[in-house]
Design a protein that fits this description.
The chain is mainly beta. Helices cover 9% and strands 52% of the residues. The protein has one helix at residues 3-14, and strands at residues 16-24, 29-32, 41-53, 59-68, 78-87, 91-95, 102-103, 109-114, 121-132. The strands form two sheets. Strands 1, 3, 6, 7 and 9 form a five-stranded antiparallel β-sheet that branches. It has a four-stranded antiparallel β-sheet with strand order 2-8-4-5, with no helix packed on it.
Length: 137
């Protein structure tokens, strides 16, 4: 194998990251900080986002995966993927894509957000991936 493919394989196995956040009555703002090198890029492999509506009226929630350079904030971030979910009262909705291979831009962080916040609604995100440093060598 070439040096680049050997390096990618090593990144995939060794340079892993994960993020988990559970919130109630507030928005998800989980993030993976920017890679150490501005030549490296994060790759999202697996994602699970769950919205549980305990007793609010049914409503629509937008879940988003974004890339950002502005210190992990939503302002100035680009949307990589998003899902609109309708969550009826006393029920849950979830998004669980796997094998995503979704690349963020080089040197950028990844943010996980939702937009609708109600007091009796809880949200959780679990995500994992790896950091591609192949353009560093």
């Amino acid at each position: 194998m070439s040096k680049k493919s050997d390096g990618l394989w090593a990144n995939y196995l060794d340079d892993r990251w994960s993020v988990t956040q559970l919130v109630s009555g507030t928005a998800i703002t989980a993030s993976v900080s920017a890679p150490q090198s501005d030549k490296s890029a994060h790759v999202l492999d697996a994602l699970s986002m769950v919205i549980t509506n305990c007793n609010a009226t049914g409503h629509t929630v937008t879940l988003a995966v974004r890339e950002s350079t502005l210190g992990g904030t939503v302002a100035g971030s680009a949307i990589l993927a998003q899902w609109k979910l309708f969550v009826p009262a006393s029920s849950s909705a979830q998004v669980n894509p796997a094998n995503m291979n979704l690349y963020a831009g080089k040197g950028k962080s990844i943010l996980f957000t939702n937009d609708t916040v109600l007091g009796s609604v809880s949200s959780s995100v679990n995500a994992s991936g790896w950091t591609d440093t192949s353009s560093d060598y």
